């Protein structure tokens, strides 16, 4: 019998239903996502791209309450490595999302750094490596964001290492953590993205445990990943090839990750995200049901 992972709170997200954008004809309607995520046995959800779910707090509260759902976090994209000139525009976007996240009773804001490669066209927009000055802008900007979000909205920011961004590989993640204040900035460890970029999630949890504030559960298909790396395939097309796969068929193994997280002795959200944009509308629900069953078998 697997020991219960009683500090892990499992949820899912619009991403597991193929949702990447606020409005897109290839995505399922938000009502269907809410119905199906509840039917699959999850009680926690993320907001997904701002504007996908209703942004009026009273309406959204009514919709999630009737499905016995609760919100764990909102998500924002930022380009803070570009320096103080982007702060005002960043804060305007963050404030919108943070206000709704706070209104829904959630405590976390997932912060994703901007892409250096366009996820639709694959065009390289910026160099993959930051200069020393850009690193300073990024780390100081994230600390400022963490402080302002906490002061204004009472939320903790958790920065999400992500493929095709400047916080991706083990070296970049460690440099980011070593350069930021743990009182202001912690990590949303996405097991799939970290594996995609060559990192070891269990090692990261065991080494930087006090900085792990949130988890995204995801796996990569090693065979597809090898081809993606070899041919330098951008993240968007890699997802369309199925690089992010249904657990437990990929890597990393999720049970050791969850056990390592449980050992930290703190309550952590573990939100399932299986990148599937775009996907057939009937595909997500059966996967979500099987994934929830699998996570229960791990004790979560």
TrEMBL record:
Gene3D superfamilies: Divalent-metal-dependent TIM barrel enzymes (3.20.20.150). InterPro entries: IolE/XylAMocC-like, Xyl_isomerase-like_sf, Xyl_isomerase-like_TIM-brl. Residues 34-296 form the Xylose isomerase-like TIM barrel domain. It holds the Pfam family AP_endonuc_2. SUPFAM superfamilies: Xylose isomerase-like. This is Xylose isomerase-like TIM barrel domain-containing protein. It comes from Streptomyces olivochromogenes.
């Amino acid at each position: 019998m697997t020991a219960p992972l009683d500090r892990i709170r499992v949820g899912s997200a619009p991403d597991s239903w193929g949702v990447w954008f606020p409005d897109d004809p290839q995505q399922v309607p938000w009502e269907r996502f809410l119905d199906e995520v509840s039917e699959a046995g999850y009680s926690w959800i993320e907001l997904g791209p701002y504007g996908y779910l209703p942004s009026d707090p009273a309406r959204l509260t009514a919709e999630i309450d009737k499905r016995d759902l609760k919100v764990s976090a909102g998500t924002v994209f930022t380009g803070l490595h570009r320096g103080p000139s982007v702060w005002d525009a960043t804060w305007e976007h963050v404030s919108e999302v943070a206000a709704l996240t706070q209104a829904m009773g959630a405590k976390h804001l997932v912060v994703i750094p901007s892409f250096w490669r366009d996820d639709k066209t694959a065009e390289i927009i910026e160099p993959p490596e930051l200069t020393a000055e850009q690193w300073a802008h990024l780390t100081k900007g994230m600390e400022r964001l963490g402080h302002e979000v906490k002061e204004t909205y009472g939320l903790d920011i958790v920065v999400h290492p992500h493929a095709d961004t400047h916080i991706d590989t083990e070296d970049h993640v460690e440099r980011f953590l070593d350069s930021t204040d743990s009182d202001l900035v912690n990590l949303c460890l996405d097991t799939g993205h970290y594996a995609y970029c060559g990192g070891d999630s269990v090692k990261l949890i065991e080494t930087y445990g006090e900085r792990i504030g949130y988890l995204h559960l995801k796996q990569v298909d090693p065979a597809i990943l090898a081809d993606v790396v070899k041919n330098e395939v951008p993240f968007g097309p890699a997802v369309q090839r199925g690089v992010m796969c249904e657990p437990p068929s990929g890597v990393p193994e999720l049970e050791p990750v969850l056990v390592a997280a449980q050992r930290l002795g703190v309550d952590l959200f573990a939100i399932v995200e299986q990148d599937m944009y775009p996907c057939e509308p009937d595909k997500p629900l059966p996967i979500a049901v099987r994934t929830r069953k699998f996570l229960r078998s791990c004790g979560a």
